[in-house]
Amino acid sequence: MDSIDTLIIGAGALGLACAARLAKPQQSTLIVEAESLIGSHTSSRNSEVIHAGIYYAPGSLKAELCLEGRERLYAWCREHRVAHQQIGKLLVAVEAAEIAKLEQLQRNAQACGVHDLQPIGQKRLSELEPAVRGVAALLSPSTGIIDSHAYLQSLLAAAENQGAQLVLQTRVERLQHDGDGWIASGSSGDEPFQLKAQRVINAGGLFAQQLANRTQGLQGVPALHLCQGRYFSYGGRSPFQHLIYPMPEANTAGLGIHATLDLGGQLRFGPDIQYLERIDYRVDEQLREPFATAIRRYFPGLDSARLVPGYSGIRPKLAGPGEPAADFLIQTVGDHGLPGLVNLFGIESPGLTASLAIAERVARGLE
């Protein structure tokens, strides 16, 4: 049986960030990915936003790791020449009744350590974004956008430069501790395999719980709730210079259908919220009018004919419909008592922003 130092399961942003952090020339590091491409699921199906850290519960891992991760990510992009832009975001109160929500968001952000939000009035909002309807806003200058695919490639290159190896179309189906390391069993292509690793990181994203439930001796695996978010692209030139976010919708698991831009200037709207029983990436064209209704609250000049179904992503949530938002769960030996094993559960937004900070926390958890 082949024996290695570190096995990382999943080649999304989390697995690759962990590989970039942990790989060393004198140690053997293997990244295995069940799909034929890296980042095939949540890591490449999102808004590509570098989040400032505004919305999360003060003191939560999401809040802490978003702030740390944001700074690490901007520095990484500069060092590794990953395309990004600190474009800024406007959080908009469409009507006077929402100003209290805007003020509460600012207080929450400050409690999380975000101190650069700039309150602006209706006149300044109209100057910055003439197409936006609103009575007040908060400008978040720390919010940015990133080429997520280039970021994933840069992480992989950094890991490979330290000797890590990536194997695609390889699925780990079971983990068993033999007292001297972890035996991973699964299939690569059509061939079964077994290997032994001293430490294992389960960064399987949407499939992390599936493997955790087949890990010998592991207790306390949280339930997984698949939550789809769909996006529509907007044809033609964008009327916006910033990202535009309405106030978060009451009693939902999301932030409302907001406007984001990619680095090419393409405008897209989303995501919405829909819990699923199984993975499904379809975007129904009949959603155009519900999307248009939501968008027109802050963008009354919307031409719904220019809305085109784009893509969707799925969040690996730990909270179900109507339940309070759950935090990230980075499960280490202190949680489950199993040496050399880290499980990453519920790493939804701001997971991409926080990925380098999460990798640092994983490294500490293995020390």
What can you tell me about this protein's structure?
By secondary structure, this protein is an alpha+beta fold. It has two domains: about 160 residues, FAD/NAD(P)-binding domain, CATH 3.50.50.60; about 150 residues, D-Amino Acid Oxidase, Chain A, domain 2. Strands 1, 2, 9, 10, 11, 12, 19 and 20 form an eight-stranded mixed beta sheet that branches. Helix 1 links the parallel strand 1 and strand 2. Helix 1 runs parallel beside helix 5, helix 1 crosses helix 9 and helix 2 packs across helix 9. The two termini are about 25 Å apart.
List keywords for this structure.
elongated; FAD/NAD(P)-binding domain; 8-stranded mixed β-sheet; D-Amino Acid Oxidase, Chain A, domain 2; about 30% strand; alpha+beta; 2 domains; 5-stranded antiparallel β-sheet; about 375 residues
Taking the sheet with the most strands, its summary is:
8 strands, mixed
The CATH architecture designation of the largest domain is: 3-Layer(bba) Sandwich
Q: Give the integer mean of the pLDDT values.
A: 96
Specify the overall morphology.
elongated
Distance between the termini: 25 Å
Low-confidence stretches: none
Q: Any idea what the radius of gyration is?
A: 21 Å
Strand content: 25-35%
| Number of discrete helical segments | 9
Q: In total, how many domains does the architecture comprise? A: 2
CATH topology of the largest domain: FAD/NAD(P)-binding domain
DSSP, total strands = 20
In N-to-C order, the SSE pattern is EHEEHEEHEHEEHEEEEHEEEEEHEEHEH
